[in-house]
Amino acid sequence: MDQFLNITLDLLVGFGETLKIFCITLALSLPLGLVIAFGSMSKFKLLSALTRAFVWVIRGTPLMLQLITVYYGPGLVFGQMLLSASAAVYITFTINYACYFSEIYRGGIESIAKGQYEAGQVLGMTRSETFFKVILLQVVKRILAPMSNEIITLVKDTSLARVVTYYELIYFAQRYIKNGGLLWPLFYTAVYYLVFTALLTLLFRWLEKKLDYFKA
Amino acid sequence: MNMLEVKDLRKRFGENEVLKGIDLTLKKGEVLAIIGASGGGKTTLLRCLNFLEKANSGEILVGGKSVYRAVEGEKPVVTAEAQLSFGLVFQQFNLFPQYSVLENLMLAPKLRAKRRTTEGERETVDAIRARAEALLATVGLSEKANAYPCQLSGGQQQRVAIARALMLSPDILCFDEPTSSLDPELTGEVLRVIRSLKSSDRTMIIVTHEMEFARNVADQVIFIADGVIEEQGTPEQVFGNPQKEKTKAFLSAGVEGIR
């Protein structure tokens, strides 16, 4: 019993590291995704082509490969590591998720009726006023479901960070296999992920209810 | 004095010339009804007047001052006050769904007040609210101030849209088929509100398929077909004694449509 409690607490520390990836990635990639979305919708053909090509590369290659490239790449090219494991993880996850978010944003933004922009214009509002005061909340309402999918995927993708020696929950649990042959902590980690995704699911359900007062 | 003067306005979409040189003048307080078959250019004209489309060439003057001038092949010149000279009520209302009726009215004036840098001319939120409440009373929707657009009927939404456009006190208020997406039993309330707005200092342009309404409310009627003004005059002239074959055909087709 004592051992169970100790391992639970130890894994909680590991889960804290997992949460760190989750929170930092989300905080940075949510706004960055909007910037990328604007880039891919830009009227400047070159900018939109470059942005779309970038999104294609990021979405078209495994996150694990991107992690390895960002972490070990500089060492292979310049003969010197540039980034700590955690910096490499935060940067890679942020860019990767921003690209996925950007496509969700783009779909949401493009689905808003032209009349909303036109109404803003004829009322003398600037383009950015119209976007931030009128369009954005309607977009948020529409993309809530795909965003919740993506964000829940992020919770579990954090486990990839260990390939570049970032010590997160799965790594913590695997140590018990090496030192002492304990297998169950690895499977026990599922509980942490499940509880956290359950909380996220509830949060998104609450948000959906909160935005239920209008139709868009 | 002429409130509005439009000179040789032309608009093309690719190869398709939709407006082939429109000229018109409108005095202060006049109501102009624009009639014509779908695809004739009525709505494009209204959209050019509100700068939702940029006319390829021509000039728009408000109160004698040029607010828009375009020469074929050059970038059009639009003055800063051009947009707010005109107000537009859309066929599809285009209310902002996430805001209550009152907030829909107040949003643009509030943002505008915020943009003004000098304290003196800045309108306070209280003053804006007072104006919004007064306009809601004008369109008969005071009790819906805190309702959301999705809770209103189409007719009520359109009345809110009219009040919202009036909040910016445009020199010229335009209506783009304001009743075309309404159930027949709801058109009456909207037309009544538009009629009640008629006053000596409110200039209005209404694109409509409601011939009876155009006849009763308008001071001037133009019939547009294939991008040109085919016939122009008082309602009595255009409806009572049309000169052109196209006008006659259009008006009689409308009557037959009702039968």
- Estimate what percentage of residues of chain A fall within beta strands: under 5%
- Assigned CATH superfamily of chain B: P-loop containing nucleotide triphosphate hydrolases
Task: Give the SSE string of chain B.
Answer: EEEHEEEHEHHHEHEHEEHH
The domain count of chain A comes to 1
Using the 3D structure, state the CATH architecture of chain B: 3-Layer(aba) Sandwich
Largest sheet properties of chain B: 6 strands, mixed
Question: C-alpha Rg of chain B, in Å?
Answer: 19 Å
Description of the structure:
- The complex is a heterodimer of chains A (216) and B (259).
- Chain A has helices spanning 2-40, 45-60, 63-78, 85-111, 114-122, 127-157, 169-178, 184-210.
- Chain A is mainly α and 216 residues long.
- Chain A has one domain (2-210): MetI-like fold (Orthogonal Bundle), CATH 1.10.3720.
- In chain A, helix 3 crosses helix 4.
- Chain A is flat and about 70 Å long.
- Chain A starts with a helix and ends in a 6-residue tail after the last helix.
- Helix content of chain B is 36%, strand content 27%.
- In chain B, the strands form two sheets. Chain B has a six-stranded mixed sheet, with helices on both faces. Chain B has a five-stranded antiparallel sheet with strand order 2-1-4-5-6, covered by helices on one side.
- The longest helix of chain B is centred in the middle third of the chain and has 15 residues, at 101-115.
- Chain B starts with a strand and ends with a helix.
- The relative contact order of chain B is 0.17.
- Chain A binds chain B through residues 113, 115-116, 118-125, 129, 133-134, 137-138, 141, 213-216, and chain B through 50-52, 83-84, 86-88, 90, 92, 94-98, 107-108, 111-112, 148-150, 164-165, 167-168.
